[in-house]
Amino acid sequence: MKLPPASERVRAEWRSRIAAEYGSAAITQHLVLWLIQIGAPPDVLDEGLRIVKDELEHARLSHETYAAAGGGPPPTLARDALGLVRDPDVPLEVDVLRAGVQVFALGETVAVPLFKHLRERCTALPARTALDRILRDEVRHRDFGWTLLDYLATTPLADELPALVTRELPAMLTQLERNYGDGGGTPVAISDDDRAWGLAPADEYATILRRTFDRDYLPRFTTRGIDPRPAWAARHGPSGSKQPK
Question: pLDDT band at 245, cuts 50/70/90?
Answer without folding.
Answer: very low
